[in-house]
Amino acid sequence: xxxxxxxxxxxxEGEQVPPTFHADAFHCMQCGVLAxxxxxxxxxxxxxxxxxxxxxQCQCTNCRRNSVxxxxxxxxxxxxxxxxxxxxxxxxxxxDVRRDYEEARLIVSQSPRGACALLxxxxxxxxAELGESGAxxxxxxxxxxxxxxxxxxxxxxxxxxxxxxxxxxxxEMDLTDDPGTATALFELLNFIxxxxxxxxxxxxxxxAKLPAxxxxxxxxxxxxxxxxx
Length: 229
Hints:
- The protein is of the alpha+beta class.
- The protein contains 6 helices and 5 strands; from the N terminus they run E-E-E-E-E-H-H-H-H-H-H.
- 28% of the residues are buried.
């Protein structure tokens, strides 16, 4: 690829770069690492002459595994591996939520709209995991806000809710050919899991390691009678 096109190797810390046709770098859908990608157009020999096809091979410079793409009028389409191109789920994502998340990963390259709809369903299940009813996402978010939910998590939840609704009932947003928005929703869901599940779990584990005398002093200071979970 020309050197002047290498600018898309740059990514902010923590940013997920989705696989994109002819991109110099993205998060490999096979090893999960942000790595430079090497592209080669495939061809066939007929009568001693080389004929280029619309099929391209892309090799990840980290794991050296290949993906196969078809060049189309507007960009290109991933042919192999099938699916799995969305960001991987957070390690602390509940199993019921993870199932919908993984299904969305399998189809995001072929159907960003379908992936967004599945992620909306995953959010509905996540709200139930967070102690809400899980029957109405909007009501669940309102309840969480009343309990002190941060503006960052509220915005992430509402983004997943609204965009997911538009995927099911097309309105002001056309998600048919918008893998970038779908990829961003994967990131938002992982962010919510980290904020509401992983971080409290980590804080509780660290607190549990404090000496008993220190915990007793904290309980006396705060008027609490039992050790926090």
